[in-house]
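Below is how a single chain appears once it has passed through the pipeline. First comes the sequence as given, then the structure the pipeline wrote out for it. We keep one example in the README because the format questions we get most often are answered faster by looking than by reading.
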Amino acid sequence: MVQSRILLRELSNNKEFIDFDVRALSFDSRDVEHGDIFFALKGSNENGKDYISEAKIKGAKLILSEDHIEVSKVIQVNNLRNYMGEVASRFYGEPSKELKTICVTGTNGKTSCVESLAKLAYKSGYNCGYLSTIGVSLDGFDVIRDSVLTTPDSINLQKTFSEILDFGSKFVALEASSHGLQQKRLGGTFVKTAILTSFSHDHLDYHLSTEDYKNSKLSLFRDLNPEISIIQIDNDCGNEIYTELLNKDKAVYSVSNKQAADFKYSFTRNSENRLDIELISIAGNFSFSLNTLSSVLASNIICSIAALTLNGLNISNLIKNVKNLELPKGRMELIKLNNNNYCCIDYAHTPDALESALKELRQSFDGKLWCVFGCGGNRDKLKRPLMGAIAEEYADVTVLTNDNPRLEDENLIFKEILSGVKEPNNVLTLADRREAILYSLDSADQNNSRNIVLVAGKGHETYQEINDKTFLFDDREVIDKYLSEQNVE
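Resulting structure:
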């Protein structure tokens, strides 16, 4: 336990403040027990002040609120979300100060960057815990639990940092989502290194505008004051923040496939569906191959190599271990169907990611390109017609299906996707995702040409959300079952 006056240093002179041992921190009144501090946060749908009475009845010793409320044990605190992170950090012993904390943001590529970074560190003899969209690891190798949020709330984030430090790891890598950054979930985190992997259209259901979305991403570099920044500069947002940090004499390093950079790479595709990479960097020049056909994944891995190198690891050892690096599930995951046909599972759920995946496959394979995809319900509607237009432009056959329609009418989602398509009659719609995947695999098998089937949008996810219910569903399992039944026949 931590003494309250030590934990809440800024409030120590408040006349309502009393000394007590803090059992736990909570922003959910249902979890409160005797001796806790309760943070009455304002949410998009609910306000924590409505639960202050419940928290007091359950034994909360102190309640911090963004609103001024004339009730005993309640103290008003401005910027409460950020302050909650600072308090959580102190409660768990400021673990991110003891760790080399690497935060990764970007529209696409966060998961592959974080997980490849942790695995490369592990292969080089350094435990690096991570928090990714897929899961949480204390050492960079074993996953101890699935993730609920891309970036956890600040209390659970600091608790996980503490677990990683107690395990003996000296590094931690985590994804910093735009939601997490805007909601100050990284408050109290001491950031050693920050990475920007990419920037494009997404999350305009939550953010007020593209500018608001961009500024949320860039707050990682502007507000959290990382010691080292690594920027993929092959996009306008990357160029903007790189130039800004450079002009402020910050320690900032660039990654690029297109222009001069601190870590400049080029690639060619070989006959084994791998990339041969040439890296020219401030740490030396190297040639190596990657177990992927995706240049986007290559960029994320280069960012990982840059981050670890700038944090003191030997780049030659990193390069040596990168050849057989295991990539995150559902990230341009290639499956051989037979001698003529392949299938690819990818998390592509944004216009930029879908376009990149289709272009990579078009450049890597001869034959007919199929695209099976949908768009999530109760999320950014503006990207739907954009993704429809991209599928029509790059795929030979487009099959629309459900992603996670959630509470929306699937037919309205399909209609909005098709609004971006010039020839909607050429698009097949099969709402049942299993049926859509099996139809595409069967059709590819039955024609006499070579085929590559992209199943996009869900990647690693093992569920579907339909009409406020969650069902088990895994694209990979559907494909594996199809292949096993084909082999039996």
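Residues 129 and 139 are 4 Å apart (CA to CA).

See the next section for the split statistics.
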